[in-house]
Amino acid sequence: MTQLATPSRDDAAIRGLILARSRALGAKDAAAVADCGTSDAVCYSLAPPLVDTGGVKGLEGWFATWEGPLGYELRDVSVVAGADVAFVHGLAHLTGRKVEGVVVDLWFRLTLGLKRTAAGWKIVHEHESVPFYMDGSFRAAVDLTP
């Protein structure tokens, strides 16, 4: 028998997972971030390569490029959940200082695909993007704010 989604319960569980992931990102806790997803999760992140399946090692490497904790805030989050699949989208705000001293203050688009597992909702797909200027320069529009 197909299990029907319970909007309030599923919405709360999914938002709780997304909040836990955001906190783990801010704390640069790679294991906790990875625990929010499945072992075969796919990430289309802002940084190369085109597809990131680096898992904990990849996150630890990326976290090592930052000084101190990260600022990571989600805004305008929308959750749509079915019986076994859910989608989340919104805007993410990443702030911090890179180890070489560059200050980052970046808004980007975030879409997450989740599936219900025996351990609860887990992220199976992540897509991050910034728009680019359509003036022929192909310059990333990293100066946009909501």
Give a verbal description of the structure:
This protein is of the alpha+beta class and 146 residues long. The chain has one domain: Nuclear Transport Factor 2, Chain: A, CATH 3.10.450. It has 3 helices and 5 strands, in the order ααβαββββ. The protein has a 5-stranded mixed β-sheet with strand order 1-5-4-3-2. A hairpin with a 2-residue loop joins β4 and β5. The termini are far apart. The model has no long low-confidence stretch (mean pLDDT 92).
Outline:
The protein is α+β, with helices and mostly antiparallel strands and 146 residues long. Helix content is 25%, strand content 43%.
User: What's the architecture in CATH terms?
Assistant: Roll
Beta-strand residue fraction: 35-45%
**Judging from the principal axes of the Cα atoms, what is the shape?**
globular
H and E order: HHEHEEEE
CATH topology: the name is Nuclear Transport Factor 2, Chain: A
Radius of gyration: 16 Å
Q: What is the residue-mean pLDDT, rounded to a whole number?
A: 92
DSSP summary, beta strand count: 5
Question: How far do the termini sit from each other?
Answer: 43 Å
Give a quick account of the main beta sheet: strands, pairing sense, barrel closure.
Answer: 5 strands, mixed
Total separate domains: 1
Helix segment tally = 3
CATH class descriptor: Alpha Beta
Helix proportion range: 10-25%
Biggest sheet, spatial arrangement of strands: 1-5-4-3-2
Structural class: alpha+beta
Low-confidence sequence ranges: none
